[in-house]
Specification:
It is built from 14 helices and 26 strands. It is of the alpha/beta class. α7 runs parallel beside α8.
């Protein structure tokens, strides 16, 4: 095991890659040595490393942009500090020293003939943070692919390295259920041939991508891609031929899926770019055919979206949702929010947001989609929005929502 004590000291701020690119051996070494090192503040993105949440160390203060992956467990324990920010703001926050950036732990590909390593499937905010982080410690994994567009890091830039040969962390896709398929079909009806789409990961986004298989010449510009993207590339649907910028190329920050995806990203027309590019409003403004497709925990009768909290627990994030919905609604084609009408007997369409956080403003939401249909909000007044949203809510909740809408107007 690598000894991190010469590089990480009490009071240090540390960050590391997220999702499948997480340098798990280095993170686990930090967790095992933290009592000897002393208090450390860490910035963590999406993580599936349950050691962080199951054996929380009092010396490790964890900060994130959301409660993604297993971080919701820390949130439930009151041990997760959230920085509420747009994903596009992360590069600036690292540059200003607002986020921990004394030491970076990262997973990279083996060096090429010139001694340069690729960030592989995990570029996103890491590529921007590197510029402001004096000490880098790398896990050089033989199975990390070299990807297009990913910045190259000289081997000499690392203060220490370990070498591994292990599979990248995977998140297998679950088969969508009937409700998710109905939602996906409604969403797909709003996408036109030649559009450039942004979409997240998970079962519902995968169902939407499957529902798009009869479309033509779609493009993609998204923070993340999943296995479902492979099928659209293989079937010739996702060509990017009509993209206004980066034509013929899928632009993303990270790949989150299985080995099937990871093994092919090097040979696919996919560029992995930093968050300072993927989420840049100037870049997004160049995509006039841009369609954002995002999910939510709750939506109120005016169209406000909550996608961060359930009760007092952070189970989501602002992330790139607002970056993408604003661009799609303002300078692109259309912004779409998709969600189940109800969860555990409770309506997800609500008179007012129950959990407090407004992730996306109602001004940036053009359509809300549930299994019961499509609520078209663009251009409607508040009463019209309420009528549209009630019409796509679960039938057993509509009468109550209609009474609430009447009370709100009174």
């Amino acid at each position: 095991m690598i000894d991190l004590r010469p590089h990480i000291r009490a009071g240090s701020g540390v960050w590391w890659n997220q999702a499948g690119a997480e340098p798990t051996p280095l993170v686990n070494a930090l967790l095992e040595q933290i009592t000897q090192i002393g208090p450390v503040r860490a910035f963590v993105g999406l993580t599936w490393n349950r050691a962080i949440a199951h054996l929380p160390a009092p010396e490790l203060a964890v900060t994130s942009y959301g409660g993604l992956g297993d971080l919701w467990r820390l949130s439930k324990l009151g041990l997760l500090d959230i920085v509420p920010c747009h994903y596009s703001a992360l590069p600036r926050l690292f540059a200003e020293g607002a986020l921990p950036s004394d030491v970076g732990l990262l997973q990279v590909s083996p060096p090429d003939a010139d001694g340069n390593c690729s960030l592989g499937i995990g570029v996103d905010y890491i590529a921007d943070a590197i510029e402001h982080t004096p000490v880098l410690i790398a896990e050089i994994n033989r199975r990390m692919p070299v990807t297009r567009g990913a910045p190259k890091i000289p081997l000499s830039r690392f203060a220490a390295v370990i070498e591994t040969d292990r599979p990248l962390l995977e998140i297998p896709e679950r088969e969508p259920d009937e409700v998710e398929r109905r939602i996906a079909d409604h969403v797909a009806s709003l996408v036109r041939d030649g559009d450039t789409i942004q979409i997240g990961i998970g079962t519902l986004p995968a169902a939407v991508l499957s529902a798009l298989e009869s479309h033509a010449d779609l493009g993609m510009h998204s923070g993340m891609i999943s296995d479902a993207v492979l099928r659209l590339i293989d079937t010739g649907v996702l060509t990017g031929a009509r993209k206004e910028i980066d034509a013929g190329t899928v632009v993303t920050g990270t790949a989150i899926g299985t080995s099937k995806l990871y093994d092919r990203v090097s040979s696919m027309p996919v560029d992995f770019r930093p968050a300072s590019y993927t989420h840049d409003p100037v870049v997004l403004a160049g995509l006039r055919s841009f369609v954002s497709i995002n999910s939510a925990i709750e939506v109120d009768l005016t169209g406000q979206v909550g996608a961060e909290r359930r009760g007092n627990i952070y189970a989501g994030a602002v992330g790139g949702q607002t970056d993408f919905t604003r661009a799609a609604s303002l300078t692109g084609a259309r912004s779409i929010i998709a969600l189940r009408a109800a969860r555990k007997g409770e309506s997800n369409i609500k008179a007012e947001l129950e959990y407090g956080s407004v992730t996306t403003a109602r001004t940036d939401v053009d359509f809300v989609v549930t299994e019961y249909g499509i609520a078209k909000l663009r251009g409607l007044d508040l009463a019209g929005r309420a009528r549209q949203l009630i019409a796509v809510s679960a039938p057993e909740h509509r009468e109550r929502l209609e009474r609430a809408a009447h009370d709100l107007r009174s």
